Amino acid sequence: MPPKATPERLTLFSDGVFAVLITILVLELHPPAQPTYAALLALWPRWVSYSMSYLFIAIVWMNHHYLLRHAREATPRLLWTNFALLFAMSLVPLSTAWMAQSRLAPAPVSFYALVFILVNAAYLCLIEELIGRAPDEAVPAWARLRMRQRAVFTLALFVLAALVGLFVPLAALALCLVCLIVYLRPGPPGA
């Protein structure tokens, strides 16, 4: 019987994808045409978009890192769930660039929030795959419940942000930022 597939390659591959995503984000930043602070300040939508996306990728990576510590075997189900998360994450640079180029127009901001919805839904599936069936000694039932509650709560806020983004883009970004703050600390909230 062959040995179980360990999750190390999954972790390394995922880390590489996160690094590439951050690299793509920074490549979308361009200096202003004029050598003045006013010209740099005029690019504020790009800086807001970049900063928020960088923070988003960093937070997802930290939480992903936390979750993968619970992986004991790289099952096909875990691999596909992880690929779903990475697919959703791969849309972050596109949505960021569109939002920045449009100077935070409604449809691009709404799409940006939709990408956050996809990432959050895939992350919820990863929680179920890695934490949902874990024994109580590995992850207590209260911790699993808190992680699920946080994921569902932020999923609902991202849905609200996608809708609000069609009318008040800055309010939608504020809702997305609230969700990011909720995830600043990986693992179960309140632990």
Automatic annotation (TrEMBL):
GO terms for cellular component: membrane. Pfam families: TMEM175. Keywords: Ion channel, Ion transport, Membrane, Potassium, Potassium channel, Potassium transport, Transmembrane, Transmembrane helix, Transport. It comes from the Bacteria. The chain crosses the membrane at residues 12-27, 47-67, 79-99, 111-131, 152-184. The keyword Transmembrane applies. It is a multi-pass membrane protein. One of its GO terms (molecular function) is proton channel activity. InterPro entries: TMEM175-like. The keyword Cytoplasm does not apply. Its main location: membrane. It catalyses: K(+)(in) = K(+)(out). It is found in: Membrane. Belongs to the TMEM175 family. This is DUF1211 domain-containing protein. It comes from Agrilutibacter terrestris.
